[in-house]
Every structure is written in C-alpha cells, then in structure tokens.
TrEMBL record:
Start and end residues of each SnoaL-like domain: 7-102
Cross-referenced Pfam families: SnoaL_2
Protein name as it appears in the record: Nuclear transport factor 2 family protein
Length: 138
C-alpha cells in the first residue's frame, strides 16, 4: 500500500469506531502530538484509550475533505462529529513500512470573522474550487 492508501484505510477504520482495529495501522512505537494542548500520545494502547474513552454523545462519523499525498508524508483534513460536537482535524501523517509512525494533529476552533475585515471579504460556504467541498463520508 502507498502511504496515502494507509492513511485512507486509517480514516475508514476510524469510521467504524473500532479504535483497536485502527491502531493496527499504527507502528508499535506510534506517537501522536496535539500542539495546541501539548499532549503526546505514545503507543497503540494509549491511542485506543484516548479515542474510546472520549465522552462522546454518539458514534463518531468522519468526512474526509482533503488528502494531500506524499511519500512518506500525507496530510488530511477531516470533519468529525458525534452528532452533537462538530470539529475539523488537520493531520500530518508519517508512514513508514506500511504503518503510521506519527501524527501531528491540529483541531482548529471556528470563529466569527472580525468586523474590520468586512469591507474586504464576504462570508461563504467552502467554495468547490478549494477542494474537498462535498467531502467523502467514510
């Protein structure tokens, strides 16, 4: 499998909510880092627990908005929801020997546009030309 195949399979498996199965696409010495909170997830078991123990309101659903393929690095933009909470995650994946060895994830918060920019912009849904507008439900 190419690195992009591994990452696509990872998100497809995450969509089953079987985090143990998703962890099998990670290397045994996997490391995931969330820079905004400075949290480092080390190993498959911690990956499983941090996902399985999250206080969700329902099953997680994932929509792949964009996948930028490289070798060994792949970047994805994914919308995540449990039916109540909605978020977007931008993930930088490093894939080696068919396994994800590390992920750097940004979970940006949406915000209202500041009034000072109003003369220069218009509010809009995501333009088709920006890629990933419809997304790929997984």
């Amino acid at each position: 499998m190419t690195p992009s195949d591994v990452v696509r399979r990872f998100w497809q498996t995450m969509a089953t909510n079987d985090f143990a199965a998703a962890s099998r696409l990670l290397s045994p010495d996997y490391r995931g880092y969330w820079p905004q909170s400075r949290e480092l997830i080390e190993g498959r078991e911690n990956f499983i627990r941090v996902n399985a123990d999250y206080p969700a309101e329902g099953r997680w659903r994932f929509t792949l908005r964009q996948l930028v393929a490289g070798d060994p690095d792949v970047v994805t933009e994914v919308d995540v929801t449990d039916g109540v909470m909605q978020a977007t995650v931008v993930t930088f994946h490093r894939v080696e020997r068919g396994e994800i060895v590390h992920q750097l994830e940004y979970w940006p918060d949406p915000f209202d546009a500041p009034p000072w920019r109003a003369p220069f912009v218009r509010l809009s849904d995501r333009p088709e030309s920006m890629g990933g507008a419809a997304g790929e439900p997984l």
